[in-house]
Amino acid sequence: MANLQPIPTSRFYVEFDGITEKMIKSVTEVNFTGKLAGHDKPVSSTKGGKTLWQTTSSGFEENPNFTVEVFLREGDMQMYNWFKAVMPKSEGGDGNWAGSRKAGAIVGYNSADEEVLRWSITNAWPKSYKVSDFGADKSDLCVETYEIVCEQINRTK
Questions:
Q1: DSSP for residue 19
Q2: Residue ranges of domains in the chain
Q3: In 3D, which of 99, 100, 118 has the Cα closest to residue 108?
Q4: Which residues are within 8 A (CB) of 157 and not within 5 positions of it... i.e. 6 or more apart?
Q5: What is d(CA 86, CA 76) in angstroms, rounded to the nearest whole number?
Q6: How far, in Å, CA of 65 to CA of 121, rounded?
Q7: What are the start-end ranges of the E strands in the chain?
Q8: pLDDT digit string (tens) for 32-74?
Q9: For the chain, how big is the Rg over CA atoms in Å?
């Protein structure tokens, strides 16, 4: 009989080529939706009056994406510099989208610190950037939020 051990959602990490050792607050909304073709009308009718339909996958509705929240640390500009690298020069970025895409992974761990889940990420880039609100009455830690888009996410473990 299989040993059923739930996997805690609080034990995880996300990294990208050359961007490691971050204090990750959360990874949310990992999603991708398949696009369908041929499902809107019947293909044929067979003996006995059975109607045949065909549905075919034709890629994704949009590129896979997810959100990463990273605790901001003094002097750490790696994630922001990556965001700036992919932005067009006309928007104040470096204009190097094609050369700045990165491979990465989202990893989940069990309570014994063993890797039990892995999603491999192909050709990722940050699409949007947001930083925490500041206020004299706030007591939260500062967080940068990045929406990450990629060409592919595969669960490999």
A1: B
A2: 12-34+62-155
A3: 118
A4: 115, 116, 117, 118
A5: 18
A6: 10
A7: 12-16, 24-31, 34-37, 44-45, 51-52, 56-60, 65-71, 102-109, 115-131, 143-149, 152-155
A8: 776 666 666 776 777 787 776 666 655 556 788 999 999 999 9
A9: 21
Measure the CA–CA gap between 73 and 94, rounded to whole angstroms. Answer: 23
Q: Does domain 12-34+62-155 have CATH number 2.30.110?
A: yes
6: helix, strand or coil: coil
- The candidate with the shortest Cα–Cα distance to 124, out of 72, 71, 86, is 86
Give the pLDDT score at 47. 79
Alpha carbon 117 to its chain centroid, in Å, reads 15
Question: What is the token pair recorded at 137?
Answer: 């009455």
> pTM (2 decimals)?
0.80
Count of other CB atoms within 10 angstroms of residue 88: 11
Residue 83 backbone class (left: φ over 0; alpha: ψ -120 to 50; beta: rest): alpha
Rounded Cα gap, residues 68 and 56, in angstroms: 32
Residue 96: how many other CB atoms lie within 10 Å: 14
The one-character DSSP state at 73 is -
